[in-house]
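Example for tutorial group B:
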């Protein structure tokens, strides 16, 4: 651990052993903090906070996802192929293909924030997961094929 020569505590220099790192790598000073952090009460407090943070982040994600789907699929959002309207079944589709390469470029799991950050660019639409996967694997959607033969 690095020594902080410019840190002084009650007239004495703080030593390297006065510092410790939390499991997430945050450098902290003070033995009292370490005792509290590792205590049963401190661990319980962190578990509750982490659970609340997880719920909050999930709610934010669902809100952003719904906003993006409504932008590209109307209000309420629907699949542009089969007219599926249950939001759990809907996904963003890259109209001209290239979704895998695009996700690799912008990072895993960040399509919805990327779309919002880039002011909802054109080239995307809403499809249900079945239609989206069929187009990705076979190059066509069975709903369109059935409609053409019917």
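The residue assignment follows.
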């Amino acid at each position: 651990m690095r020594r902080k020569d410019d840190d002084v505590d009650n007239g004495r220099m703080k030593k390297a052993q006065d510092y410790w790192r939390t499991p997430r790598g945050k450098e902290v000073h003070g033995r009292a903090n370490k005792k509290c952090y590792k205590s049963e009460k401190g661990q319980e407090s962190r578990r509750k906070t982490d659970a609340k943070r997880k719920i909050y982040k999930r709610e934010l994600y669902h809100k952003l996802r719904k906003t993006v789907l409504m932008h590209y699929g109307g209000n309420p959002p629907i699949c542009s192929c089969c007219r599926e309207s249950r939001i759990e079944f809907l996904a963003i589709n890259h109209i001209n293909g290239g979704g895998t390469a695009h996700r690799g470029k912008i990072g895993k799991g960040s399509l919805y924030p990327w779309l919002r950050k880039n002011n909802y660019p054109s080239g995307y639409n809403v499809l249900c997961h079945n239609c989206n996967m069929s187009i990705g694997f076979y190059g066509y959607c069975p709903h369109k094929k059935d409609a053409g033969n019917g």
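Strands lie at 8-9, 12-13, 19-21, 27-29, 90-94, 124-128. Compare this with the pattern of hydrophobic and polar residues in the output above.
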